[in-house]
Structure to design on (1044 residues):
């Protein structure tokens, strides 16, 4: 490993960027990189370098790096591999300290490429340049609106730092994250890592004030000891979540032919994660789920979960994975049960999970959640079946009015006016009876309460409750699936899971991290 | 169990339906049930029964069942529990053979309800009435457009039959299925199952010509032996997929308080599933994934998988779960490798998974998939990173043009005209160079090939290939996630998975079923 001092602040907050190989040709790296930087809102200086053009994307094209008079904080290289070494020599002369090399055909393609990469890192090491890549998809930095990436992904700004040993996978996971409403602080696709180690970036993110949660996609480690030390320093302050590839023999084979990394024995790595308090994600989907969970929710004190469910089946589906995730169905104290007796129909189950048995009174949902969240017997709350999805009312309104109406016209034409009269009569009756109580819980919806059912009302309440009780509340958006769940999360400080099982999984990981923190503090 | 002959054909294809408790009040079961039937397109006769109304939803209201002159194939009951027994007596007199009882507060709420339910089933058994429920969310039947359910879910018509011991969960999973493009033939929410066993429905679906795939959500079995026998008869002809709830002690507790079922020892049930060739789904999400997989794809001959991936990281993520799912990364014969040598850049990995190393020539993707699918060494094909999602082009176009344009106006106003000139120049050059070959694979996109990138082209090709080779091809819609994946599946005979790991999972379950079939045929 090189001995020079890295200047990561210039990498993540460059005041000027030179793009060697800048191009007007659509689809070329040399065109996608600057377009994405402009599209991402980067406001520093951009210098295009291309000896065969006068102008690139509206900026004057320079014949070489030397021709640029000003200081360059970050070099982006998008030219064929065999030419990159010479450019790096020019960069050393110019005193550049950071380079993102997106060019491929280096060590990943055999002996010739390995030679080129060796020369590249020798030059960079001697000249004190940190190379991201080669064969990288680039980096992202929220603090300078820097989308220095080969794909048009403009992440939401937030607190999740992401280091990925696969650039492509990393960028696509950021795309998932964006749709899930997860905000990112930094991203690094480490590529071939010519003269870096992911630990370099891990250490930087550990100290980075805008990064509060760190996620990692790892194929192999160069220096396990150093990784462990760095992780141990960080995890007491920030959660670190890792997806380790190369689990079985077939996965290890794929890793080898992908980045040439030796995946190593997975059992060893898992032991290291446990020791360092790193939270393990088992799949790509889970890595994104956990990024959302840990960046939005407070860490619980223990593993006892209170569950509220509208629909008993969901409660069962959730409870079914409690054992596997190391969670405990909280035993509700008598005081909580008495509290719930006041709110729920007399035939409620009087135990956890709390099935609210079809109770559609919104105020009652909040009472149940408050009772669970405020109980000392509960560390984590999961709420299911009550978040409806952004378009639920509109969709349902259309379904329950338009479709029957159309079919009345098609199949019962002569009854149409009477149908409309009936609907009107029913609605008027519902309004006039809105204050009646309904002891058997089987009666219609109170129209005056409909606005309480908006998701925004529910989410505000959850946020407020989390602030008061300092306990994580996980909502499950079972009506609408992931897409709708996501639309709510955007900067809202909540986590909505797409399924009950994924909610329980997230709760289990929170509890695991809580256990690590409390054992660490002893 | 009752000894009378069930008349399920009348249940699933009723020519006339009477709704007792029919109501105009929005949100009431008595209003939602007929509205959903009308909305679903049911064209048989509807009779509303409500002594306190003259007219319900445009139909004349009858004071009682007796007042209806015509024959009733199906009775729907939506009145308080204590009144249901009397109605059932009237139904016996009227010669009705099937009833869907949505009323709750029966055996699920204690001794009083259990008494009511006992009386109900005695009457029904003596009178030869099959009761779906009580405490059910209803049934669906594609052959008669019958959405006899308590929620406005109008499933796509298709070949998946679904029996669920939780109505709420079942209906919401159908909602997921609908968004995933899965077509259903029948649905039964069995509720308290007063005088039925889920095996009754399972046997019916086993013989049902429009049902090709059966999915089950099971909390507990009344008669394990009978279930096993029925399943063993069906699975050689139709795949049966089951999600069994009540796995650990905490899940069993939740089952008990939900439907009062004894979940039983899960290990026993799993043994039974293995013996009967039932495919196990471990989560609600997987039940839906597998319904999609088995209803869309042919059963493979073995477990050897050929993987094509655009983006090496996805290949690793997939390979990583091969061991767990009992799959084998197919060893590519020399002939296939030579075939691929002609298509892929010279530095390709020359092994499976086939990373197409950033090759964006659409025709090449098809060549690779053809080579994999036609090889005798491959039983299943997984294709990743190549299905873009319905709005991909529009979104990408907006991202790569509009956002940079806006930011040029905001931050580099004076360069705007030059920027536009550059873009134009680049595009014209790309068009003029479209026929140039690009040996290093780093060059721009060929604009004339853009239309080949439409998902519809890809899907047609996959379908054609599956028809020719009779092997399942699973596509992963990693760019867009589940929502977009779904939009493609609608009646298209393909299965798109939301993540690489979920694709591998589906492939593993296909291979498991294939193994069962081949051992069964021996």
């Amino acid at each position: 490993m090189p001995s020079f001092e890295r200047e990561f602040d210039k990498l993540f907050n460059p005041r000027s960027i030179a793009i060697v190989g800048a191009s007007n040709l659509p689809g070329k790296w040399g065109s996608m990189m600057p377009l994405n930087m402009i599209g991402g809102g980067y406001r520093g200086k951009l210098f295009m370098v291309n000896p065969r053009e006068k102008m690139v994307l509206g900026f004057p094209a320079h014949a070489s790096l030397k021709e640029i008079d000003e200081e360059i904080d970050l070099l982006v290289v998008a030219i064929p591999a065999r030419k990159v070494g010479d450019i790096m020599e020019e960069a050393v002369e110019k005193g550049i300290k950071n380079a993102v090399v997106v060019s491929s055909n280096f060590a990943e393609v055999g002996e010739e490429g390995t030679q080129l990469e060796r020369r590249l890192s020798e030059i960079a090491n001697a000249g004190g340049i940190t190379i991201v890549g080669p064969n990288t998809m680039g980096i992202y930095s929220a603090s300078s609106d820097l989308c220095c990436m080969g794909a048009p992904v403009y992440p939401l700004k937030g607190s999740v730092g992401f280091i990925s040993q696969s650039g492509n996978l990393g960028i696509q996971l950021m795309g998932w994250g964006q749709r899930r409403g997860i905000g990112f602080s930094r991203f690094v696709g480490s590529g071939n890592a010519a003269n870096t180690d992911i630990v370099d970036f891990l250490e930087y993110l550990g100290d980075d004030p805008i990064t509060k949660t760190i996620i990692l996609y790892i194929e192999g480690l160069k220096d396990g000891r150093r990784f462990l030390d760095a992780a141990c320093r960080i995890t007491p302050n920030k959660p670190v979540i890792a997806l380790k590839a190369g689990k079985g023999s077939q996965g290890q084979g794929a890793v080898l032919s992908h980045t040439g990394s030796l995946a190593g024995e997975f059992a060893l790595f898992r032991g290291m994660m446990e020791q360092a308090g790193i939270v393990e994600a088992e799949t790509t989907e889970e890595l994104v789920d956990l990024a959302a969970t840990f960046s939005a929710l407070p860490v619980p004190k223990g593993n006892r979960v209170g569950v509220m469910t509208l629909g008993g089946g969901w409660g069962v589906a959730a409870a079914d994975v409690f054992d596997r995730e190391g969670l405990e169905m909280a035993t509700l104290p008598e005081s909580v049960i008495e509290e719930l007796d006041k709110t729920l129909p007399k035939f409620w189950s009087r135990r956890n999970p709390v099935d609210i048995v079809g109770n559609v009174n919104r105020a009652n949902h909040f009472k149940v959640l408050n009772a669970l969240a405020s109980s000392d017997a509960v560390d984590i709350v999961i709420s299911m079946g009550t978040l409806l999805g952004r378009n639920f009312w509109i969709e349902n309104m259309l379904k329950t009015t338009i479709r029957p109406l159309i079919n009345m016209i098609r199949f019962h034409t002569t009854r149409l006016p009477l149908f409309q009269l009936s609907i009107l009569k029913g609605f008027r009756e519902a309004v006039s009876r809105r204050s009646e109580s309904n002891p058997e819980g089987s009666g219609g919806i109170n129209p005056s309460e409909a606005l309480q059912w908006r998701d925004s009302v529910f989410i505000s309440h959850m946020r407020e409750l989390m602030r008061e009780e300092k306990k994580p509340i996980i909502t499950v958006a079972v009506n609408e699936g992931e897409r709708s769940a996501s639309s709510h999360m955007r900067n809202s400080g909540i986590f909505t899971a797409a399924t009950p099982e994924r909610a329980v999984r997230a709760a289990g990981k929170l509890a695991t991290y809580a256990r690590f923190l409390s054992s660490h503090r002893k």
About this structure: The longest strand of chain A covers residues 156-164. Chain A has three domains: 1-133, 155-296, 299-389+452-521.
